[in-house]
Amino acid sequence: MDSNTDKIARIRELVGILDRAARVYEQEDREIMSNFEYDALYDELVALEKETGFVLANSPTQRAGYEVLSELPKERHESPMLSLDKTKEVSALADFLGEHEGMLSWKMDGLTIVLTYRGGELVKAVTRGNGEIGEVITNNAKVFKNIPLRIAYTGEMVLRGEAVIRYSDFEEINARIEKDEDRYKNPRNLCSGTVRQLNNEITAQRSVYCFPFTLISMDGQPGFATRVEQMEYLRELGFTPVEYKVVTAGNIADVVKQFAAKIETNDFPSDGLVLCYNDIAYGNSLGRTAKFPRDAIAFKWKDETRTTTLREIEWSPSRTGLLNPVAIFDPVELEGTTVKRASVHNVSILEELALGPGDRIDVYKANMIIPQIAQNHTRSGNTVAVADGEQAMRSSNVFVTKTCPVCGGATEVRMLNEAKALYCTNPACTAKKVRSYEHFVQRDAMNIEGLSEATLEKLIGLGLVHEPADLFKLSAHREVLTQAEGFGDKSFDNLLAACEKASTAAMPKFLYALGIPGIGLANAKLICREMNYDWERIVSATAEEISSISRLGDVLAGNFTEYMADEENRRRIANLLEVVTFEAPEQVQTTPITGKTFVITGSVEHFPNRDAVKDFIEARGGKVSGSVSAKTDYLINNDTTSNSSKNKKAKELGIPILSEEDFLAMAGGN
User: Fold this and answer.
1) I need a labelling partner for 337 at 20 to 30 A (CA). Which of 175, 369, 426, 591 fits?
2) pLDDT in tens, 449-465
């Protein structure tokens, strides 16, 4: 890149690439490049701008974000929320501190939220948005798992925190989704969509946490001198501040290592650390640049990369037929562990990296956790054609297999969410069966202990299991199984005992085990309860009956009735019920609220949250709906005189509005 003209052309190109990546990430909750790629291009842009003095108005180095796209109300922040300057060098953190004391904390990977309390109550929550205008998500924030709705401080308080979804909750949510292509890519994307839901009932189901990281303002502020004092005051009020440590230039390198050691077991997603001056007055005195405040800096993990040789692509099957590419390469040491495989995600990324046998590739751990391919030095691979209708795939890339590695059936490349993905076209593929059986036997379903993927493959491969009912008829195959590799009399007896124990099952778990798209365990419980645990009524339910159940809609109702109308599904269910017995259903208390329909709104005082009120009602035979209608018997709202839309609707329909105390008195419980 010799001339200044070439450098300016490269700047324009980089701005265009980064602009598109940012728009897709912020507005559509998708990623078209890795963090590693984005950071590398961003750093290149910064260097070129500094060298040439040429900066475009729409450069990502000059703005904080984009206008958000949703139907939620918008609100302008009182002061712009600037992004932070960043570094990957620990030495730069020490230089930043100089002789001053700092506070080092996690840089959590979620969505920044501004919370406003007034009169001791949470009155407003707004997303960061583009840094100047955010979305009002107050109703959603009120169902976050760890945010207090009321605090002891009665003046106006404004603070910022990061809303995140834990890895464990993320995995649990994805496990309940039938199709691989419908699953969420990462906790950040899921959190972004969750906190911007128009229905906060969905938000409540997804376990969002919010960790305050700075106190913006307080009426009658008690004169905090340090950031640490602010964090501890917030802790006293009942918040869960972001984890932090006090640091100096002398110990910051060791403290960064302490944080790094926690990454692998940390349940909350993070993408680095944030360092700010502990002395608030000093930090404020530094002011800010056009984009960055000068009192804080972000630290992103300096990705440890290793160059290695790519050997093959292994195709990992799912129960929907999707084959996921996994790169297998010569082992390398990364972040203290040996790594020899990394997900390539889909065929499009396989193409973008131009992967071929023997290529020299750089690998790293994204956020020090997930092995990824950073770049391919030799790029020997070719592109892949996409199947057109019934036409089979024709591929020139040697890594894209034309046959399923499990069943040998033909594969084809299809478009999936604007990316190419490889599928097995054989409906009888063993891998699909194994994955569906894994769902059937899992703990929240039929709970058959000891039925691992390897054991299921063996049972299917030996021709002993053709449908779920066959799992409860294995006693007829003792001779075959005890002679199979890895099996013996003890293993066989343990498996029989587990199957016998599982043959008596709770009806909701049985229903969930069937694998009906969208019908998780919670929805299965709702259906069974609504249908009074009458199995014949359940399998014969109409779409209207299912969609009328609280929290179930037309889509799930369609999935349910379509599944139950299928002749093959009904045959398999009938065969299962010859070997499975339902447990007696949970006894529902008969109380004054049995059969009554309630709507719950506003904050609660006698219960931890509104979900607890709902559980209380349903355990006593009542029903809970999300909206007030002619079918509603009572509206529960501690502010019985408010002019909220639900109160107005209830008054129009003549529906009594109860406070919690009124409700508990009527229900005969506390």
Assistant:
1) 175
2) 878 877 887 787 677 88
Alpha helices in 148-236 (DSSP H): 167-175, 187-195, 200-205, 227-236
Is residue 146 a contact partner of residue 240, using CB atoms and an 8 Å limit?
Answer: yes
Tens digits of per-residue pLDDT, 182-208?
Answer: 677 788 888 988 888 887 778 888 889
pLDDT in tens, 274-305: 999 999 999 989 888 777 888 999 998 777 78
- pTM of the prediction? 0.52
Structure tokens at 91: 């030495």
Say whether domain 597-667 belongs to CATH 2.40.37.10. Answer: no
Is the torsion defined by CA of 422, 426, 432, 436 positive or negative?
Answer: positive
The token pair that represents 121 in the structure block: 């109550």
CATH of 432-582, picked from 1.10.150.20, 3.40.47.10, 1.10.10.10, 3.60.20.10, is 1.10.150.20
Name the β-bridge partners of 597: 623
Q: How far apart are CA 333 and CA 165, in angstroms?
A: 30
CATH superfamily membership of 74-299: DNA ligase/mRNA capping enzyme (3.30.470.30)
The three state secondary structure string of 512-538 is HHCCCCCCCHHHHHHHHHHCCCCHHHH
DSSP letters of 601-640? -S--SSSSSHHHHHHHHHHTT-EEESS--TT--EEE-S-T
Polymer length of the chain: 670
Tell me which of 74, 86, 88, 107 is the catalytic residue. Answer: 107
Residue 292 CB-density burial (10 A; 0-12 exposed, 13-18 middle, 19+ buried): middle
- Token output for 527: 């259906």
Q: Which H or E run contains 87?
A: strand 86-87
**Residue 55: pLDDT band with limits 50, 70, 90:** low
Q: Please give the helix or strand (H or E) that residue 138 lies within, else none.
A: helix 138-141
Cα 427 → chain centroid: 30
Do 133 and 76 meet the contact criterion of CB atoms below 8 Å apart?
Answer: yes
332's tokens: 């390398």
Structure-block tokens of residue 71:
């139907």
Q: Which residue type does 137 have?
A: I
Residues 6+ apart with CB under 8 A from 227: 103, 214, 244, 276, 277, 278, 280, 283
CA–CA distance, 528 with 240 (Å, rounded to integer): 38
- pLDDT of residue 572 exceeding 70, the answer is yes
> What CATH number was assigned to the domain covering residues 306-424?
2.40.50.140
Q: Look up 145 and say whether it is catalytic.
A: no
The interaxial angle of helices 567-576 and 554-565, nearest 10 deg, is 70
Residue 487 and residue 462: Cα distance in Å, rounded? 13
**What single DSSP character describes residue 446?**
T
